[in-house]
């Protein structure tokens, strides 16, 4: 097979040249690729395309990335473009923001987005507001990325979802991929975007493989920011989600299909700007909306979706009040069973969908 | 199942039982079924003996306890002693209950009561409201099967309306287009006629569809009845002639129609309850007489309203009439002005101009009455002049017909109105009063 010949050739030369991401060799057919490899491929392509793009963060270079997302990049691009930093988020984020004011395009990795809280002043005040505050003089083409939300037993300080907080900031773009295609397309779009972009990945998705179409494998594969994706079409209930919970939404849709309820699943992809058009159109189509997120309920993404449904023409088409399924209103517990109880599970989503379709039988 | 009787008891007080054992046989109007225990326990007290007496569902028939030693506590137990405790559930038949209801049961019989709060608000989803409006249903009459009795879209779609649950068209509302073409502006031109083998199809314009719908609905909903009277027009024609003689040349002459409209408005003063609208739960009697005058025909049929005819003089009523009739003519670009849809409190139609003797008009909902005026004819009538030798005389006579909505205006009131109208027309000077 062509792919195995190529691999042998590379090994014989003694130097790994093009096999970034551990085996994602170009081919003419859809292949399976893990999310971390897709992100890595996206980073690699953008660094090749534009020499001003560089990566900075803890363990990104010599350690190959805390989650191996930047694997192979240090070897390929050297220490001027893949930079290990001390453990000081405020420091290296500020460095990155300053660099972006001088036409460089930094990609700042936060080992988890929880740690971005150490640098949130740089993200919001340093990056997001600059274009406005400088009257258009200071563009800030920076990308912040890292795993967001829950993991497995990472407990209260390392399991928070920052989607709601960052998505409320004008001047900042916020995206959150689900599949490998999403991940690669969004990181490339983020790097090419002249605005500061926060990319909220998910640790538990890094190792999960998805089919990567031919098109997605190409170097031009960019997912536009601001457009949601309809993962599954349906007619009875709309489930809106982002990041890992999209998988849960799809599972719930399967369960409901056996009960005769057809669910439409929307993968938001972009939290800011939020694709209001798609949300409204789907709500008008089905008349029932369930919003699913991992984060806390108060002032979450679901709250914004509820506001959209109230403030727009979608309201007139609602046949049931919106339901939201969110993480519990507690700091993430450490005990495994409590952690499970604090996060949306399949039965919670199914129950919410059933509440929207609830109908008492006539006498 | 609403009631049953106990055919026989299978256990007696003090007997222990396990889940599945039969307490008693219950006779319903459909079958005799066994009442089974759901849990283990002991029969403490039997409250109702076996017999033919009907027992309503919800009435306690039995007390059971978990432990045998508690039985004696209930030896003298009566239901009244239970105080606030809820009654034990009625004996549940173990066989599947009544035959499957027919697929489309009449709404009055099978559907649950319409969902209303104690404050009379209808609880319905926004989509249900929208659908009901489109379909012309009164949302309050749709039974709700959503949570808490909320009316949801499916309820509206499944609803089979009776005549009373069609939405009342409120006075003062503009004409609303039918559901088939929501939101479309009324188009005057309806497309060219299509010829077929032995027929020609004329496409129906928006305006015509709208009017047709409303007329059909009015004919269905309103309990019409008709009162007819012949009116001698001689005095009125005299008055008109003399009034027109006083007018200077630049003023337009007064027509007969404006006299008649004034007479109708004055009749409303005499019989105010006819100047009313049916509004389902109330009859609204209006203070001012606003008359819809039916003008034009076909696509240019319109019913402009002349407001406060009671307060206006005949000349100003005439001016407004002329203005309305002029708006019927196409303007310089050949366009027809849109028909006006403002609602008044009373409608008048004149078929006399076509030489027609009389007409029984269709009431414009939600008004209570409509008046149709026939042609002014020269007729031979009995001579009321005792001194004359002729027993007949010639007189100009017009036939007027009043349609009334019997829910608002009963026969006596309608007749009084028509009598007043006749008297005003035959003695036009009384219009000054």
UniProtKB/TrEMBL annotation, chain A:
Alphabetized UniProt keyword annotations: Metal-binding, Mitochondrion, Oxidoreductase, Potassium, Pyruvate, Thiamine pyrophosphate, Transit peptide
Organism ancestry: Eukaryota, Sar, Stramenopiles, Ochrophyta, Bacillariophyta
SMART domains (alphabetical): Transket_pyr (SM00861)
Keyword Mitochondrion on entry: yes
Cofactor(s) named in the record: thiamine diphosphate
InterPro entries the record matches: PDHB_mito-type, THDP-binding, Transketo_C/PFOR_II, Transketolase-like_Pyr-bd, Transketolase_C
EC number: 1.2.4.1
GO biological process, one term: pyruvate decarboxylation to acetyl-CoA
Highest taxon of the lineage: Eukaryota
SUPFAM superfamilies: Thiamin diphosphate-binding fold (THDP-binding), TK C-terminal domain-like
Pfam families: Transket_pyr (PF02779), Transketolase_C (PF02780)
EC class: oxidoreductase
GO cellular component: mitochondrion
Key word Chloroplast present: no
Domain Transketolase-like pyrimidine-binding: 33-208
Catalysed transformations (reactions): N(6)-[(R)-lipoyl]-L-lysyl-[protein] + pyruvate + H(+) = N(6)-[(R)-S(8)-acetyldihydrolipoyl]-L-lysyl-[protein] + CO2
PANTHER family, A to Z: DEHYDROGENASE RELATED (PTHR11624), PYRUVATE DEHYDROGENASE E1 COMPONENT SUBUNIT BETA, MITOCHONDRIAL (PTHR11624:SF96)
Protein's name according to its UniProt entry: Pyruvate dehydrogenase E1 component subunit beta
GO molecular-function terms, A-Z: metal ion binding; pyruvate dehydrogenase (acetyl-transferring) activity
From TrEMBL, chain B:
Keywords: Acyltransferase, Lipoyl, Pyruvate, Transferase, Transit peptide
Domain Peripheral subunit-binding (PSBD): 123-160
Coiled coil: none
Residue span, Lipoyl-binding domain: 1-66
Biased composition (Pro residues): 86-109
Domain of life: Eukaryota
Gene Ontology cellular component terms for the protein in this record: pyruvate dehydrogenase complex
Record keyword Acyltransferase present: yes
EC number: 2.3.1.-
A Pfam family: E3_binding
Cofactor(s) for this UniProt protein: (R)-lipoate
Entry keyword Acyltransferase: yes
Region (Disordered): 79-120, 170-191
Gene Ontology terms describing biological process: pyruvate decarboxylation to acetyl-CoA
Low complexity bias spans: 182-191
A GO molecular function held by the record: dihydrolipoyllysine-residue acetyltransferase activity
Family: Belongs to the 2-oxoacid dehydrogenase family.
Protein name: Dihydrolipoamide acetyltransferase component of pyruvate dehydrogenase complex
Organism per entry: Seminavis robusta
